[in-house]
Amino acid sequence: MRILYYDCFAGISGDMNLGAMIDLGVDPVFLAGELQKLNIKGFHLEISKDSRRGISGTKATVVIEDPDNEKHRHLRHIEELINQSTLSDPVKKRSLRIFDLIAEAEAKVHRIDKQKVHFHEVGALDSLADIVGAAICLDFLKVDKVMASPIQLGGGTVKCAHGIMPVPAPATVEIVRHIPVKTGLVQHEATTPTGAAILVALVDEFTDQINFPIHKIAYGIGQRDISEVPNVLRVYLSESVADQNDTKMEEAWVIECNIDDMNPEWYDFLFQKLFEAGASDVFLTPVIMKKSRPANTLTVLCSQGLISELKSIIFFNTTTIGLREHAVTKTMLDRFERVIETELGNVRVKYCTFQEKTIRVKAEIEDVKQLASLYKLSMEEVEKIIQKNLCYGFS
């Protein structure tokens, strides 16, 4: 399994992240070319080697060519830019997720609707490049899991568009709720809202326990050089060794509640909202509550960074007044997908391996439905035809 680990001992910003990703091996020419798919002119990347307190790495700077003409944008403008671009769907989804986190935080701080948040800072060209660039870099690296240390936020005060603010800034605090953090190492803003949102959106697990081999180390150099603490973001890349059973283990979170007074017709909409927000799994379990009342336990499985958003969806779309949450360990079989040819047409098939043998094979259900409708066959008839073309026993 390919793991990307963020060691945020000195914090993180958008440009530090870009520098670290390029230092790790992301092709800067590829990155610049992908950013052009936003169809926005007026900026370019400058990449250079630099050092902080003896640590060498890569410095990435987004140069704004005409700062006086830079536009201020709202969330819908950002969404339109990204959705109308020719970027890949995973890059679009991750970029929008990062922007949405920042918009939600700013909206809560200022008590306004997130669509009315004025992106005077994060809607600027440099932040657009930082955020979309982060999604592009992750897609380029093809990692299976993203991990991070607790985030150093810094201390003191910071000057922003609304005046002098304490560090961490209010928006940053909102973004990193439920995430392990540290403060006070330096007396400045070590982690920006953009940097915090990148981590919360992309990281699967926050931990300072590293139990994997480190194969590559890289450093992103920050713009600041006024502290004894090196202003750098360190990242590790690992190719972890699979265990003897060919399984993968990772931490996930469970959010659950018991519901006994809700219209059952609401569940379909709730499930849709939860899955769209990134939940790994959502299911109901029948239970009997006090006074022998029948009810359902709603269970949602997700990564740590999605806890806050999914809890909000549950509170807004159910009748529950309380939630439980706890960490769990997921153990998963190795999986891969192949396209096979059948007499009805091509079908995507998912294979699961265990101890170097294929033990689960299943056709993609949407392909089965499509073929059943096309040829006016039952699902069972289509699956029998597909079964004749399946291969077993290889890893």
Textual characterization of the structure:
This protein is of the alpha+beta class. The protein has three domains: 2-239, no CATH class; 248-329, Alpha-Beta Plaits (2-Layer Sandwich); 343-387, no CATH class. The protein is built from eleven helices and 19 strands. It has helices at residues 14-24, 28-35, 75-83, 89-110, 125-141, 170-175, 193-202, 267-276, 307-317, 365-375, 379-387; strands spanning 2-7, 43-52, 55-64, 73-74, 118-119, 145-148, 151-152, 157-160, 163-166, 181-182, 205-206, 216-221, 232-239, 247-259, 281-288, 294-302, 324-342, 345-354, 357-363. It has a six-stranded antiparallel beta sheet with strand order 15-16-14-17-18-19, with helices on both faces. A hairpin with a 2-residue loop joins strand 18 and strand 19 (357-363). Helix 1 (14-24) runs parallel beside helix 5 (125-141) and helix 4 (89-110) packs across helix 5. The longest helix has 22 residues, at 89-110. It is globular, with a radius of gyration of 23 Å. The model has no long low-confidence stretch (mean pLDDT 89).
Observed structural traits:
alpha+beta; Alpha-Beta Plaits; 395 residues; 5-stranded mixed sheet
